[in-house]
Amino acid sequence: MDDTLVSQLQPGQLLARGVCRHLGSHNFVAVEEFVPERGKRVDVMALGPKGEIWVIECKSSRVDFTSDQKWDGYLEWCDRYFWAVDVDFPTELLPDDTGLIIADAYNAEIIRLGPEEKLAPARRKALTLRFARHAARRLHGYRDPRL
Amino acid sequence: MDDTLVSQLQPGQLLARGVCRHLGSHNFVAVEEFVPERGKRVDVMALGPKGEIWVIECKSSRVDFTSDQKWDGYLEWCDRYFWAVDVDFPTELLPDDTGLIIADAYNAEIIRLGPEEKLAPARRKALTLRFARHAARRLHGYRDPRL
After folding, report:
1. Closest approach of chain B CAs to the CA of A146, in angstroms?
2. With a cut of 70, which residues of chain A have pLDDT below it?
3. What class does CATH assign to A3-143?
């Protein structure tokens, strides 16, 4: 993606881009705008080498965070939950018992892991299948774009 | 993918392209050149809505088929196994107890399902995770191509 394309992304998408790059260095793969169940959409869902599932919500500003009433509904869809914000974000707004990632469009760093609350096996199985099908469907769209 | 790109694909890849399109109409998603374990690579691996795992080997000619000594090693990596061949392929060469798909670069049709041999749960779990990570990694390569 060149800088022209970067300039077309929304602020939250720029953070997601850096987050996804950084997750690769932890051997996690990630998809964006993932729907864990009808009516919910998370910014980034990541899948680790042992099947660990992380959710990362990207917040580009104080207003972006304070207007989000839905985030605690995502906790039940992951083993670990993170916020991703830029270096100027007032991180004291964020709950202590959540993970924290500082990101820009090019990279990111995990500052705080937050607690791990392991998913029940049945939900992990269903989420992994849904992640796999989401990623393959999007990939197919790139490989065979006339579809 | 326009016709210029189609012309750059190998015969087996052209079949795989039609197969992947057709699988979508059965609500299966698919990835190409998937490695179920070190040293094995399948042409197409497909994942169904309930987690069904299919392997499809694409054979562009008689020689392509008769030179393949590895195919029965793929049976243990799927619930159903298929050959995909073009309309001129001598299908009497293919074992009766395998699935059959007739394909071209644009579409395909399932002629014979073949028997179902369900994977053990632990292998299905591991394969689904590997599929998910494969698809997400490839997708990321398209979304962020400088990586």
Report:
1. 6
2. 1-5, 147
3. alpha beta
pLDDT at A25: 96
**Which amino acid, B75?**
L
User: Using CA atoms in the order B69, B128, B43, B103, what is the torsion angle rounded to 10 degrees?
Assistant: 120
- Other C-beta atoms lying within 10 Å of the C-beta of residue A60: 17
Chain B positions in Cβ-Cβ contact with residue A47 (cut-off 8 Å): 129, 132-133, 136
This prediction has a pTM of 0.94
Put the strands of the sheet holding B42-47 in their side by side order. B29-34, B42-47, B53-59, B80-85, B99-103, B108-112
HEC letters along A4-23 = HHHCCCCHHHHHHHHHHHHH
Structure tokens at B27: 């609500």
Q: Is B31 on the interface with A (CB under 8 A)?
A: yes
Domain residue spans of chain B: 3-143
